Amino acid sequence: MVVVGGGNAALCAAMTASQAGARVLLLEGAPKPYRGGNSRHTRNFRCMHRGPLSVLTDSYGEAEYYDDLIAVTGGRTDESLARLAIRASEDCLPWMEAHGVRFQPSLSGTLSLSRTNAFFLGGGKALVNAYYRTARRLGVEVLYEAQVTHLELEGDRVSGLAFTYRGESHRIEPTSIVVASGGFQADTDWLARAWGPAAKNFLIRGTPYNRGVVLKDLLDQGVQSVGDPTQCHAVAIDGRAPKFDGGIVTRLDCVVYAIVVNKHGERFYDEGEDVWPKRYAIWGRLVAAQPDQVGYVIIDSKSLNLFMPSVFPPIEADSIEELADKMGLPKQKLRTTVDSFNAACGDDSGFHPTELDGVATRGIDPPKTNWARRICDPPFYGYSLRTGVTFTYLGLKVDERAQTSSDAGKIENLWAAGETMAGSILGQGYLAGFGMTIGTVFGRIAGREAAAHAS
Amino acid sequence: MRAKLVEEARRQIEICNACRYCEGYCAVFPAINRQRAFAEGDVTQLANLCHNCRGCFYACQYTEPHEFALNLPRALAEVRQESWQDFAFPSLLARAFHRSGVAIALATVLGCILILWAIRLLGEQAGGGGFYVVMSHNAMVAIFLPAFLFPLFSLAVGLRRYWRAVAGGPVRLSMLLSAFGSAARLKNLAGGHGEGCNFEDEDRFSNARRWRHQMVMYGFLLCFASTCVATVMHYAFDLPAPYGPFSLPKLLGVPGGVLLSAGTLAMIELKLRADRDLAEPGVWGGEMAFMLLLFLVSTSGLALYAFGQTAALTALLTLHLGAVLAFFLLTPYSKMAHGFYRLAALVKDAQGPGG
What we know:
The complex is a heterodimer. Chain A has ten helices and 20 strands. Chain A has helices at 8-19, 62-73, 79-98, 124-137, 188-195, 213-220, 276-288, 320-327, 331-344, 434-454, and strands at residues 2-4, 25-27, 44-46, 103-104, 117-120, 141-143, 146-154, 157-165, 168-172, 177-179, 203-204, 225-226, 232-238, 259-261, 294-300, 315-317, 380-392, 395-396, 403-406, 409-416. The longest helix of chain A is centred in the last third of the chain and has 21 residues, at 434-454. Chain B folds into two domains: 2-85, no CATH class; 89-350, no CATH class. Chain B has helices at residues 2-19, 28-33, 40-49, 55-59, 72-87, 91-99, 101-122, 137-165, 173-185, 208-236, 248-273, 284-307, 313-330, 337-350. The mean pLDDT of chain B is 93. Classes of the chains: A alpha/beta, B mainly alpha. The A-B interface holds A 33-34, 40-41, 43, 102, 104-105, 107-109, 120-126, 129-130, 133, 242, 245, 247-249, 251, 305, 308-311 and B 14-15, 17-25, 30, 33, 36, 55-56, 58-68, 192-193, 195, 203-204.
């Protein structure tokens, strides 16, 4: 059998299938240093548990987990698949440990996740490394820089698979195929078709190798899809981040302590609506809706040490006017915005940086409903914000056996796992660590089913 | 020179501080996460705290070809190496011996020549049993006492400079216990999960380096203890060498020598398999020569015990004492210095933020 892709879901499928007795070839499109797709950038796995489990404290039951998912997706999910992912996650953690993954207690600055998310020691690349080692030990054959170009769909089965490797084209006829090659976010033309030209200003937080080649090939042949092409996991990141692959270090956690303006110097949303871990994923879309898809965060010296540092130092100035100059914002307008915001701030003695403190503005629109303190103590600091796309949700529709279908019914030898089918469960929004849960659960299911078919 | 290396290390440390995925591997990352800005002294401290386990390199999403081009083990190794050379007294000697295996070999040959010369010159006054037939105890003391005390003095100067540079505070017993406890287990090479480091086979975790290093360290400590015990026996109890096979000096020294010889060879074998680009490549030769010198010290000592009754006595004694002399004198200027600075860094780390 063939596994298309080389990230978490692909590796879980390959290892499971190999242990079930299948002969597995894994085709990773990226070169070895970039193997693992977006899994390289991940750091944890959201896991249901009825009692303390490995590094996870307390308990996190199915009902609470499902409620959390409903809250972020606004109900746009497939309940039976979602519950399947949630229930199976508990059993995944010991399986991951047995396959080489090591966990560590919640990282500093992420204490709020210590009950729900198990952090990988060393992060996602360490997980990917461990899985490649285990896969090799289990007899999985791996090719890097092997780009799958076409799957030949004939009726209800895939009869052949074409890929390029070391400059040559190859065609093979695997008995079973698992597609786990991610979304299409690195293909900015495709993003622009879905989003409009604004998408050209988006930054791609993860691998430049997820261009959706296999996804597009399958959709063109009528494989059933799920999800909206404009939906994706998008967050607001430092505007100076590289176009691709900036990963975790480009995130900015200071919005809640700041005011955020657009290029005209105007505020556009309540910066203090909720704690940042519950809001970071909506700011990607908020910034995307602003002119030129850019935002500017303004804080003053008293807030500088309240948040995790970004990889880029902030722009510093002794006055709001100087800051406006340095950031290319209209001076007068920014002055007015800051002044009217400051005038709307009241008593901030109840300020509490990590809890909803109710320190709110009065009489301005949009309001700031928590952490509203005057921006008045120089030096002032600014960051630019851009939309950073993690992965797109348009993908392959699967059933609870990870099997794909076309209008003619189930495709008997094609399964999908990971980001390429995550849209089945994530209609919108994002829940931290859930991508890895979907990848692990459905990777294992796809591997099991594909191996059973192959024997 | 150091300023440039510190600047590059700082660039990388700031990226690490924004990521934090490696927090569980060793003491370096929690120490980074306690701060937001990194002065030269902070970078020097982090560099000396790093045990070069390389776990962070293989786990890193930002290593080349990524444009952030992180290679933290190497960046810290370069600062660390430079700091040992700057702090050493006199600094010039450190620059020669850290980098040049040939210089270490020459120092060893010179050591042997000096011993041979001493044997010729003073040999006639020799008296006593065992190897004291060749060279008297007093002659040995005359040579080795200064050769032992001067390096100690030099190390003390170096450590004092280090402590100032990293703004170390007053030392309490609990900090010493923490530092020695960490070194005794090489906790920082355990990888956080106890499965060791990524040294000899890319991202595979193994405790090989930890075990082999401890063979060398405990072997050396046993040998050193043997010498100390013998000194006490000689002066306090009027029991001069030679000692029988079941005497305390032999019970400590023979297993120590065997551990040291086997450990140094095992370390050399491991180092030959490791990726040189994840450390400071410029000192590879110096480090290899240092390990060979340690091997020569222990193996010639064991040979002296085994063949001391034969005609080879003078030759073996010359070799052994020459190697020991070179080893002692080079201690502040060779890889041997790392143990002292590492302990200082562990003590400083136990002091927590602000020292």
